[in-house]
# Entry
Amino acid sequence: MVTSLAPERFDQVTEALKDVMDPELGVNIVDLGLIYDLGWDEENDALIIHMTLTSAGCPLTDVIEEQTAEALDGTVDAFRINWVWMPPWGPERITDDGRDMMRALGFAI
# Structure
C-alpha cells in the first residue's frame, strides 16, 4: 500500500532531490517539474518517486537513478522510481526558480 508522505518528510525528500540535475539541461529535477508525486510503499518500506523525463526516449535514466541514490543517501533507506509518461512533461511544469536557472544557463524561457 502506497501512502502520502508527512509534510516534513515530503519537504526533506524534495530538498534532497534538488541535488539531482538533469544531465542535459543542468537544472534540478524538482525545479524542472519532473517529479509528479512522492509516496511511501509501506509493504516494502521504500520511497516511491513518480517522475517523468523531458522526453520518453531519454537515454540518461541510469544517470538520474544514480544521482537520486546519492542524493537520498541518509534521507531514506530505499526508493523506487516509477517512470510516468502521462501527462507528458511540458515547460509549464518548470518552477519560477527553475526558469531563473535556465535563463542563467542561456535558455530563452
Observations:
- The chain has a mean pLDDT of 93.
- Residues 2-99 form a domain with the GMP Synthetase; Chain A, domain 3 fold (CATH 3.30.300.130).
